[in-house]
From TrEMBL:
UniProt xrefs under Pfam families: DUF3458 (PF11940), DUF3458_C (PF17432), Peptidase_M1 (PF01433), Peptidase_M1_N (PF17900)
Catalytic activity: Release of an N-terminal amino acid, Xaa-|-Yaa- from a peptide, amide or arylamide. Xaa is preferably Ala, but may be most amino acids including Pro (slow action). When a terminal hydrophobic residue is followed by a prolyl residue, the two may be released as an intact Xaa-Pro dipeptide
Tree of life domain: Bacteria
Cofactor: Zn(2+)
UniProt cross-references to SUPFAM superfamilies, sorted A to Z: Leukotriene A4 hydrolase N-terminal domain, Metalloproteases ('zincins'), catalytic domain
Domain Peptidase M1 membrane alanine aminopeptidase: 234-448
Aminopeptidase N-like N-terminal domain boundaries: 116-194
Annotated Peptidase M1 alanyl aminopeptidase Ig-like fold domain residues: 456-555
Keyword Protein transport: no
Leading EC class: hydrolase
Keyword terms: Aminopeptidase, Hydrolase, Metal-binding, Metalloprotease, Protease, Zinc
Protein name per its UniProtKB record: Aminopeptidase N
Keyword Metal-binding in annotation: yes
């Protein structure tokens, strides 16, 4: 049932899932790290599954392995005893079970794809999710085969003093010829994708944590010696996350040690290997001098995310990779909840929502759209997507909203308890939620499963009528979805939280004899109507409070209605979302006006948004600086691109700048006095209040650059010269470069001179230039690619330049003549030859083509066709083929 696509690509279908014929009882690995290769000996104890046929074949997977020997129950086997086709290795004589011993040779130094065992700055490390373990040894490399592991690593003591693997270190000592060894035992059965091994010269920060039941856990963060001063924040975040998971989910840690290792070559953010997380340096290292506020927040969130996987992912894992959202969506929801409790809940929510609406909505509306639980894939690495992570998290959140915090906790308790040590599927998660809450399981699972099966963003249309004589309001909600190949959409369960805003504020209204200022409905049919009573005046509806469902809302709200929400809604999230809606509306109208050739200058009084903000923003800047700073960050081009049918970046950019000027002009005095506070120039403190003050000043500086460029330039220079931390330096540099203020070039040079020895700061330096919103940035990017510090082997650096250009600089990327696409295509070919996962991800930027005008569409299609004629990895070929289709 495997389908050949092209030459080698094979499509795998969820419907073809078959349970493994053999269980793996134990894995014993012996890894010799030698000067130019590694030799891996594996001893695997198999037992035939009761359900498997008597003559079942033992099927293992292997890729890029040099097979040195194979034995079954200590009897050597020869090549006639097995079949090896592609990655699949089969042996027919396994009977009831037995012990398979293999020895293979691999080449970590030549591994540039960063999957399997590879070296990063001399450090050996592994990345096994999703299918990397088969590049280390022949193995049933699938998530539903779990076993205990015992791993011995032998290496040169001088160059690799530190030898780590999962679990507990049970033996270590000297070996011959200046070598040494360490043996690790992991008592928790796990699938191979959670295996990890690290060997190298690392320094360590140690601390500890005492679990709720009183067990002492050693915490260790391993980094290069020079980075040891950047580990405190990650350690504090880890301890906070461990306590939080005990308190909120009753989840306690289950080994004596928890280790984090920082590596500079990594394809993703971090990896939750059991007891031995491997992190991209960018997600673990933080120091006020080198890390911005956003960087600090990211470290906290990723450390928590990987830690939370210990239960949602490791103790309960996934049966197959179609169920990826089971661990990722749920864990993202958990880390979002955690982050919301650390700093500002509203800011956390609106940032998560803006991210979803900007990037996931676009993915779901474009050629790469897929279900949260897809039915098929070619390359699983292509499915670590925004849909699986972010939309997956929104589904968990809707269940939380629908069942309530306590009901959701009952469900998660049931899930962790019932499936502990097992490989589960989405249905298991849903049925746990139903059973623990006494709901009809079949109906509940069938209904909620639709969210996992139906791609695309649903649309909810809202109509309402207020009757003055009876003081009642009828509300009708209609849901619709576009149908995707093979899936006929059925109505989804959609939680709707809403309130009513009168002329002077929140109204209390009654629904089914419950009087409240905020109600929660469940829209579960194609169309439903509700009747509210005691609605004393004509209200404006505050809909989908806190974004209670990941849908697009169509409601006939006038500019005045939106302005009322911005001023008076008690739900802060909805105040923000009303500014987004109104700003989008005004930007699109301006762009249309320019298109008609009407280029009259705009006054603040022409903008309802400017009026609403002028009335409330100065006071908000004092009472809630975090929210205030967000209200001035109008939707960016990526967000706007999803709101239009034909995307012209330059026109939208011009309209957006014009609206910004209208909005900021009346706030000038207020912005000046904010900047006079100079919180930015005080020593770094990681707290919600300090971060809000800094973020407000950064926004104010950026605003000032539009109103008084000279004054803003002077201030930015001052920040750069006396900055006590990177948050101030980065804000100043971004404003100078992005707004092309006087002195920008010199500042770029000086920043480089100061930070050239800090790779993560240098990434920011590259990214700031590559994302400067001007057509000229394409030339800058060409130059940056030639820079001595550009290194195509380091994914962080590639993303800082190529990724920023293609995904975060629409004005430069969408050059009319297609030069931006050419640049990307050239880079993709270079990158794909060594790192397919990285190239495939970057290629996703071309998925925007259906939104472009015909001329640009033609350019992208030409680029796609040219690329598809080249020799490509299966990862990148699948992505480009799906984009082209
Ligand atoms: N599982 C990791 C996470 O989300 C992401 C990852 C996937 C890392 C694949 C590496 C490879 O936490
Ligand atoms: Zn994850």
């Amino acid at each position: 049932m495997k389908t050949e696509v092209g030459l080698t690509a094979i499509t795998i279908y969820l419907k073809d899932y078959q349970a493994p014929h053999y269980a793996l009882e134990h894995t014993d690995l012996h890894v010799e790290l030698l000067s130019d290769c590694a030799e891996v000996s594996a001893t695997l104890r198999f037992k035939r599954a009761a359900s498997a046929p008597k003559d079942a074949a033992l099927t293992l997977l292997g890729a890029d392995l040099e097979l040195l020997s194979v034995a079954w129950n200590d009897q050597p086997l020869s090549a006639d005893d097995w079949q090896w086709q592609g990655e699949t290795w089969q042996f027919n004589g396994a009977g009831e079970g037995g012990v398979l011993s293999t020895k293979v040779r691999i080449y970590p130094d030549k591994n540039l794809a960063l999957e399997g065992l590879y070296r990063s700055h001399g450090l050996y490390c592994t990345q096994c999710e999703a299918e990397g373990f088969r590049k280390i040894t022949l193995f049933p490399d699938r998530p539903d085969v779990l076993s205990t592991f015992r791993t011995t690593i032998v290496a040169d003591q001088a160059s690799c003093p530190v030898l780590l693997s999962n679990g507990n270190c049970v033996a270590s000592g000297k070996a011959e010829n200046g070598r040494h060894f360490a043996t690790w035992e992991d008592p928790h059965p796990k699938p191979s994708y959670l295996f990890a091994l690290v060997a190298g010269d690392l320094a360590v920060l140690r601390d500890s944590f005492t679990t709720a039941s009183g067990r002492e856990v050693a915490l260790e963060i391993y980094t290069a010696e020079v980075d040891q001063d950047k580990c405190d924040h990650a350690m504090r975040s880890l301890q906070t996350a461990m306590r939080w998971d005990e308190q909120r989910y009753g989840c306690e840690y289950d080994l004596d040690r928890y280790m984090i290792v920082a590596v500079s070559h990594f394809n993703m953010g971090a990896m939750e290997n059991k007891g031995l997380n491997v992190f991209n340096t960018s997600c673990v290292l933080a120091h006020p001098a080198t890390t911005t506020d956003a960087g600090f927040q990211r470290v906290e969130a990723v450390v928590a995310h990987e830690y939370f996987h210990n239960w949602s992912g490791n103790r309960v894992t996934c049966r197959d990779w179609f169920q990826l959202c089971l661990k990722e969506g749920f864990t993202v929801f958990r880390d979002q909840q955690f982050s919301a409790e650390q700093l500002s809940p509203v800011v956390q929510r609106l940032e998560d929502v803006a991210f979803l609406q900007t990037h996931q909505f676009a993915e779901d509306a474009g050629p790469l759209a897929h279900a949260v639980r897809p039915e098929s894939f070619v390359e699983i690495n292509n499915f670590y997507t925004l849909t699986i992570y972010e939309k997956g998290a929104e589904i968990a959140r809707m269940l939380h909203t629908f069942l309530g915090a306590e009901g959701f906790r009952r469900g998660s308790d049931h899930y962790f308890k019932t499936y502990d040590g097992q490989a589960a599927i989405v249905e298991d998660f849903l049925s746990s939620m139903a059973i623990a809450n006494g709901l009809a399981v079949d109906t509940f699972v069938c209904q909620w499963l639709r969210w996992y099966r139906q791609p695309g963003t649903p649309v909810v249309r809202v109509t309402s009528a207020w009757h003055a004589d009876s003081k009642t309001l009828s509300l009708t909600l209609t849901q619709s979805q576009t149908s995707h190949a093979g899936v006929t959409p059925e109505p989804l369960p959609i939680p709707v939280r809403l309130g009513f805003i009168g002329e002077t504020g929140e109204l209390t209204t009654t629904l089914a004899s419950v009087s409240a200022s905020s109600h929660q409905l469940l829209l579960e049919k194609a169309e439903q109507t509700w009747h509210f009573s005691q609605v004393e005046q004509a209200p404006v509806l505050s809909l989908f409070r806190d974004f209670s469902a990941p849908v697009r809302v169509q409601a006939a709200l006038s500019d005045e209605d939106l302005a009322r929400l911005i001023r008076l809604d008690s739900n802060s999230f909805n105040r923000w979302s009303a500014t987004y809606t109104l700003a989008t509306r005004e930007i699109l109208a301006l762009a249309e006006q320019y298109r008609r050739g009407d280029v009259r200058a705009r006054q603040p009084q022409d903008s309802a948004l400017a009026g609403a903000l002028a009335a409330m923003w100065p006071a908000l800047a004092t009472s809630d600086p975090a929210l205030a700073s967000k209200l001035l960050q109008l939707p960016n081009l990526a967000y706007l691109s999803d709101q239009v049918s034909c995307y012209d970046p330059a026109a939208l950019q011009r309209a957006r700048e014009a609206l910004l000027l209208q909005v900021l002009t009346p706030l000038e005095g207020s912005l000046q006095s904010i900047l006079a506070n100079e919180h930015m120039l005080t020593p770094y403190v990681y707290s919600a209040a300090a971060m809000a003050a800094r973020s407000l000043e950064a926004v104010a500086l950026d605003a000032l650059a539009r109103l008084q460029p000279e004054a803003a330039a002077t201030m930015a220079q001052r920040w750069l010269s006396v900055a006590p931390h990177m948050s101030a330096e980065q804000a100043a540099l971004t404003t100078l470069v992005h707004q092309q203020l006087p002195g920008a070039d010199a500042a770029v040079q000086a920043f480089y001179a100061r930070w050239q020895h800090e790779p993560l700061v240098l990434d920011q330096w590259f990214a700031t230039q590559a994302s400067a919103p001007h057509a000229s940035a394409r030339n800058t990017v060409e130059a940056l690619l030639q820079h001595d510090d550009f290194d195509a082997a380091v994914p962080n650096r590639v993303r800082a330049v190529v990724g920023q250009f293609a995904s975060n600089n629409p004005v430069a990327f969408h050059d009319m003549a297609g030069k931006g696409y050419d640049l990307l295509a050239q880079q993709l070919l270079l990158i794909d030859a060594r790192n397919p996962q990285l190239a495939s991800r970057l290629a996703g930027a071309l998925g925007i083509w259906p939104k472009l005008d015909p001329a640009r569409q033609a350019c992208v299609l030409k680029t796609l066709d040219a690329l598809l004629n080249e020799s490509l990895s299966s990862d990148t070929r699948e992505t480009l083929t799906r984009i082209r289709a």
